[in-house]
Amino acid sequence: MGIDCGGEYTGFGVVEHIPGGHLSCVVCGAIKLSTREPLEVRLNRIFEQLIAVIEEHQPEVVAIEDVFYASNAKSALKLGQVRGVAMLAAARSGRPVVAYAPLSVKSAVVGYGRADKAQVQVMVARLLKLTQVPEPPDVADALAIAICHLNTATTLKRQAGVAQ
Per CATH, which fold does 2-163 belong to? Predict the structure, then answer.
């Protein structure tokens, strides 16, 4: 499961390997947040909805984006709070959490670490054989994080097999 933490939307997506080495989107969506609500209410909504997705779809791992530097301290703090809630939901559900740098996620999906959101959306749709580009972009980002983790985990398993 990939989670794209955000202040307006928090995207989520569960992706699985299917026979033949292909990837399939199990579920994806976005948790829309209202800036009119107090922060604690928004954080609780994120927590409850992520717990529900995790319990329903039982992902093995929850992947999120690693912390990055932001020029706006207030936005970075809010993003950190959302990220903490996502990590708490995973931990509460007994799932390990892995984090990937934004450049790693974009490189894994688009092949270029500085790809823009539209490029990520198009490539996620292609890789998962979706009929439409995921909207809002936060959903595509969450799916991209999940794809990055699946690709990384597969590579690490292969390397471990070769090393033995």
Answer: Nucleotidyltransferase; domain 5 (3.30.420)
